[in-house]
């Protein structure tokens, strides 16, 4: 009897949630940084009322691709306004590791440009009328994980910072008290690109800087565990893991609930 009641409750919940999901709206945004054309995707849910927290989504080393845009849509379904930004430049997106490395190296060579592009995206997000500009977060994948951590360390007004298989070793010096928001790092226990030594070094850096942080490690997960196309890259270090993908996204939403009120 209890099982039938639970099934009915779940069916009802799905029926109620469907219209909200259908109400997710997206808009391609062309913007720029010092003359460099950039393009991102803004996503929000028309079924929600009032202003809500805004979340910047920073892509993997592949560039502003469907994976990043999909994360923005999922965040919109969950009731947030999300902007999947562009750190490379409009049209600079690839599926080839060599090109990805070139794009990432070019974008990373000048920290001032990195921050300027992040700030340009932040301006787009804050300008959206649905966003509560006092409640902002940034999430990053792979290369993007390193970006959001460094932006937080440079004083960006972020209440929450989340990384998924993020490049932890890319984080520079963190002065005590510099990161004022809470940090959630989600990594693969079997990720050769972010080995346990890198995770331990990151933890030591966070502790020394008095950051409120948590690290979740997913057993069996390699690098890029949230990207369904990870296995297509032909790199043994990369692999999609549906279980870790679902659990890490749920953990992020639970984390946001503790930060945003």
Strand content: 15-25%
Q: Can you tell me the residue ranges where pLDDT is under 50 for at least 5 consecutive residues?
A: 1-21
SSE arrangement, N to C: HEEEHEHHEHEEHEH
In the CATH hierarchy, the third-tier topology is known as Rossmann fold
Architecture, according to CATH?
Answer: 3-Layer(aba) Sandwich
Strand order of the biggest β-sheet:
1-2-4-3-5-6-7-8
The CATH top-level class label:
Alpha Beta
Shape: globular
Q: Any idea what the radius of gyration is?
A: 18 Å
Q: By helix and strand content, what is the structural category?
A: alpha/beta
What distance separates the N and C termini? 37 Å
Bin the helical content: 25-40%
Total count of domains: 1
Biggest sheet descriptor: 8 strands, mixed
At the fourth level of CATH, the homologous superfamily is Alpha/Beta hydrolase fold, catalytic domain
Total beta-strand segments: 8
What is this structure's SSE topology?
Elements: H1 2-22, E1 24-33, E2 36-45, E3 52-58, H2 66-77, E4 81-84, H3 97-108, H4 111-127, E5 131-141, H5 143-153, E6 160-164, E7 182-188, H6 196-208, E8 213-218, H7 242-259
Parallel strand pairs: 3-4, 3-5, 5-6, 6-7, 7-8
Antiparallel strand pairs: 1-2, 2-4
Keywords:
alpha/beta; Rossmann fold; eight-stranded mixed β-sheet; 7 helices; 23% strand; globular; disordered N terminus
What does this structure look like?
The protein has 261 residues and is α/β, with parallel strands linked by helices. The chain has a single domain, classed as Rossmann fold (3-Layer(aba) Sandwich). It has an 8-stranded mixed β-sheet, with helices on both faces.
């Amino acid at each position: 009897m209890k099982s039938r009641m639970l099934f009915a409750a779940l069916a009802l919940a799905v029926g109620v949630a469907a219209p909200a999901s259908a109400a997710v709206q997206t808009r391609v945004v062309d913007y720029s940084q010092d003359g460099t054309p950039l393009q991102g995707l803004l996503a929000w849910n028309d079924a929600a009322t009032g202003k809500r927290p805004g979340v910047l989504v920073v892509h993997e080393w592949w560039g502003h691709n469907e994976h990043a845009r999909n994360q923005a849509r999922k965040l919109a379904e969950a009731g947030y306004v999300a902007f999947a930004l562009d750190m490379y430049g409009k049209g600079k997106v690839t599926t080839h590791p060599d090109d990805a490395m070139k794009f990432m190296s070019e974008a990373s060579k000048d920290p001032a440009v990195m921050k300027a592009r992040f700030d340009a995206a932040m301006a787009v997000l804050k300008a959206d009328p649905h966003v509560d500009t006092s409640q902002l977060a940034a999430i990053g994948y792979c290369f993007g994980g390193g970006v959001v951590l460094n932006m937080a360390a440079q004083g960006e007004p972020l209440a929450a910072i989340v990384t998924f298989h993020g490049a932890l070793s890319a984080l520079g010096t963190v002065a005590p008290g510099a990161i004022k928001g809470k940090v959630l790092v989600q990594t693969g226990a079997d990720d050769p690109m972010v080995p346990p030594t890198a995770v331990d070094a990151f933890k030591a850096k966070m502790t020394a800087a008095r950051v409120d942080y948590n690290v979740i490690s997913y057993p069996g997960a390699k690098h890029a565990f949230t990207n369904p196309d990870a296995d297509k890259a032909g790199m043994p270090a990369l692999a999609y893991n549906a279980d870790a993908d679902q659990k890490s996204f749920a953990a992020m939403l639970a984390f946001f609930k503790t930060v945003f009120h």
